[in-house]
Design brief:
- The complex is a heterotrimer of chains A (262), B (269) and C (152).
- Helix content of chain A is 88%, strand content 0%.
- Chain A has helices at 2-34, 36-41, 43-53, 58-82, 89-127, 130-136, 141-180, 184-194, 197-225, 230-259.
- Chain A is an all-alpha fold and 262 residues long.
- With 269 residues, chain B is of the alpha/beta class.
- Chain B is built from 10 helices and 10 strands.
- In chain B, strand 7 (163-167), helix 6 (175-192) and strand 8 (195-200) form a beta-alpha-beta unit.
- In chain B, helix 3 (100-111) crosses helix 4 (116-129) and helix 4 (116-129) packs across helix 5.
- With 152 residues, chain C is of the alpha/beta class.
- Chain C folds into 2 domains: 1-29; 31-133.
- In chain C, strands 7-1-4-3-2-6-5-8 form an 8-stranded mixed β-sheet, with no helix packed on it.
- Classes of the chains: A mainly alpha (262), B alpha/beta (269), C alpha/beta (152).
- Chains in contact: A-B, A-C.
- Chains A and C meet through helix 3, helix 7, helix 8 and helix 9 of A and helix 1 of C.
Chain lengths: 262, 269, 152
């Protein structure tokens, strides 16, 4: 009897806590949008965050893209060769990158590289009372700290995803054309014939913008909501990675089913 | 213009998470005074500062600063008021990504349209006042605890506030830094014509520099007076506090079951 | 720092441009600048919206819509053809497959009429998709009847 009551209590508590957190997150998100105007008027702030979010993620994104391209080239060739259609390698590489791997893998890497940094930084700013100090100086932390990071994330992610896909296509080209010897003309022309700008590339860009909003918002909320202790910040950082990875994969499923099924 | 009192608190109650923290605080702080609010750890002193700064809203009662009721203010009015307040946080709360110079310049850049050369002069003056003009290029990570506290003080007074609040300004300082900080605090208050409130449990240092002391215990003011009155007081709690006695009205032991029972000497009842 | 952000944004946009120009086809066939022509088929097979419309193997348009006409009990395929290409009224449209298992597209074969087809009109000569099962069925049937007649 006691065990059942305990389980019920635990479940109820779990649900209310999370509904509460969701409400808090939504409120914070709306506040971020509300204070965005101020951070755009002072674009320096966004610029600084673009550096730490975008520029510092460049290397990991480009190298990962290249290697994913290599793998796609190899695996794709092995499979397509069986059906005698290795000339379609370009299509396979480009479509899987532009539609799925580019936005998704970039978002996951971004969550690990930039998302954690955002959470930890804001969490520590809170723990060391820097956010409180800002409030007491009549400077709104939402405008000074949160909104610039949010927009830097939203601007960075589509660019990073495009870079990822580009590097991936090059990777596929290097393995498929340069190393294995698939016909170069067929590789590019088949790719161009079946990758559509609106259908594939723009949808990929839309995906990455949606992921950017989700991951950056999660990272910011986790940081802002973290307990101001060493343990609290480390937990929040972990939660950022776990939650945003799950949310990205879930959103990807939703978006894919909306975009690519007619 | 209005009254002699810069801060007036009437019948202030504050409850956090159904736990009453402040239970009916009344106090008035005269312009130009340096006031200490003392009490044991967890007695709600810091909460009181946050209520004055408007970061928390009281459950009931009013907080008036310069004739305006803080707890009825809109976000905008509150931010306008806060520009005339400075607050020094317990460990300084310097922005770790900005240099000492930029930390002090921060409020000036946020709230004024001064040209950079004027900001520079002001920042160096403020840093000079706390004796750290030479350190303006350092990053907060390079500073000792006492220096960080002084930089934070320079930042808090950057806009020449009418009210300066200090949250535990003496915690974790060595005796020299402690003396320096205490002295500085008093001198700055008088030089700026400001009013200062500090929350502390450092009795000896405070007694030397303040005009008035309030003791808070269990959410209520239990004693108040000038330093001389406090030194000679007969109130047991204050006596224990001032003289640092181990046992007294504030017991050494946290409330608990009798020891024998906790150790189960009476058998498994 | 500004320099790096500048480089980052430039490289990012360059990558987007590369994807648009080199990887994808920024073809404007589907949008706006074309005229629509209807073609009715008994069976469209696996024809999809946005499938290419080719004449002599060159893409001249896209399939804009595939719907069922409840009066004729046929499939109504709406083609959007680039304005630069005009076709005679007696052009025939057929659903073809690129390769044995490839995607399906619409092939146009120009006729000899002097009049060109106009926006909103329909191709009258059409040939439906070849459905593999039907083809095999027909083949088996004719084979069986041959055998039957041989026996007699």
């Amino acid at each position: 009897m006691n065990a059942i009551a305990d389980t019920l209590r635990f479940l109820g508590n779990y649900v209310t806590t999370n509904v509460f957190r969701l409400g808090y997150a939504t409120r914070l998100f709306l506040l971020t949008l509300l204070y965005s105007g101020e951070s755009f008027r002072r674009f320096r702030l966004v610029l600084r965050e673009l550096y730490s979010i975008g520029v510092l993620s460049l290397i990991i994104i480009m190298v990962s893209g290249l290697f994913v391209g290599f793998v796609l080239g190899l695996q794709g060739y092995n499979t397509l060769e069986r059906y005698g259609s290795e000339q379609a390698l370009g299509i396979l590489v480009a479509l899987s990158l532009v539609r799925e791997l580019g936005p998704v893998v970039t978002a996951l890497l971004y969550a690990g590289r930039a998302g954690t940094a955002i959470t930890a930084e804001i969490g520590l700013m809170k723990a060391t009372e820097q956010l409180s100090a800002m409030e007491m100086m009549a400077v709104e932390p939402m405008a000074r700290v949160v909104a610039p990071r949010f927009w830097a994330g939203v601007i960075s992610m589509p660019l990073l995803a495009a870079l990822f896909s580009t590097m991936g296509v090059f990777g596929g080209y290097i393995v498929g054309v340069v190393l294995i010897g698939v016909d170069e003309g067929a590789f590019w022309s088949q790719m161009q014939a079946s990758v559509d700008f609106h259908e594939d590339i723009m949808n990929g860009v839309i995906k990455s913008v949606v992921f950017a909003v989700a991951v950056t918002a999660i990272a910011l909320v986790e940081g802002y909501d973290s307990k101001p202790t060493a343990e609290g910040v480390s937990r929040a950082t972990t939660r950022t990675v776990v939650t945003s990875s799950l949310v990205v994969l879930f959103l990807d499923f939703i978006l894919t089913s909306l975009m690519f099924t007619s | 213009m209005s009254s002699d009192f810069l801060v007036e608190i009437k019948d202030l109650h504050f409850t956090y998470d159904r736990r009453p923290i402040l239970k009916g605080i009344n106090l008035s702080i005269r312009r130009g005074e340096v006031v200490a609010i003392m009490g044991g750890s967890g007695s709600g002193k810091t909460t009181l500062l946050r209520l004055i700064g408007g970061q928390l809203k009281p459950t009931s009662g009013t907080v008036k600063v310069d004739g305006q009721v803080v707890n009825d203010m809109s976000h905008k009015e509150l931010y306008a008021l806060r520009r005339r307040m400075g607050m020094l946080f317990q460990f300084g709360a310097l922005y770790t990504d900005l240099s000492v110079y930029d930390n002090v310049a921060f409020p000036l850049r946020e709230h004024t349209n001064l040209i950079e050369s004027m900001i520079r002069d002001l920042v160096l003056l403020k840093l000079n006042a706390v004796g750290l003009r030479g350190a303006h290029k350092l990053m907060p990570a390079d500073l000792s605890g006492g220096m960080a506290r002084r930089v934070a003080l320079a930042r808090a007074i950057a806009l020449d506030p009418m009210l300066i609040m200090y949250d535990e300004p003496f915690t974790g300082l060595d005796p020299i830094s402690l003396g320096v900080t205490g002295n500085l605090l008093r001198r700055l208050n008088d030089a700026l014509g400001a009013t200062s409130i500090m929350v502390t449990h450092d009795v000896q240092e405070s007694l030397q520099i303040v005009d008035h002391i309030y003791f808070i215990s269990e959410g209520q003011i239990v004693a108040q007076g000038t330093p001389d009155e406090i030194r000679d007081t007969k109130i047991p709690f204050v006596h224990q506090f001032v003289h640092g006695e181990i046992d007294g009205p504030v017991p050494f032991h946290y409330p608990a079951e009798p020891l024998a029972q906790d150790l189960m000497l009476e058998g498994a009842a | 720092m500004d320099l790096w952000v500048g480089i980052f944004v430039t490289v990012g946009f360059a990558a987007l441009l590369f994807l648009a120009m080199k990887v994808g086809n920024m073809s404007g066939y589907s949008v706006g600048d074309g005229y629509t022509v209807h073609a009715y088929f008994d069976n469209v097979g696996g024809l999809k919206v946005r499938a290419p419309v080719k004449s002599a193997g060159v893409v001249v348009g896209r399939v804009a819509e595939v719907k069922f006409d409840n009066k004729r009990f046929e499939a109504d395929v709406v083609l959007k053809i680039d304005r630069r290409f005009q076709f005679p009224k007696d052009t025939s449209a057929s659903i073809l497959t690129s390769g044995l298992l490839g995607e399906q597209y619409i092939g146009l074969e120009a006729g000899g009429d002097d009049q060109m087809i106009k926006d909103g009109e329909a191709f009258t000569i059409t040939q439906s998709a070849v459905v593999l099962e039907k083809l095999i069925g027909q083949f088996l049937y004719s084979k069986a009847s041959e055998d039957d007649s041989a026996k007699k």
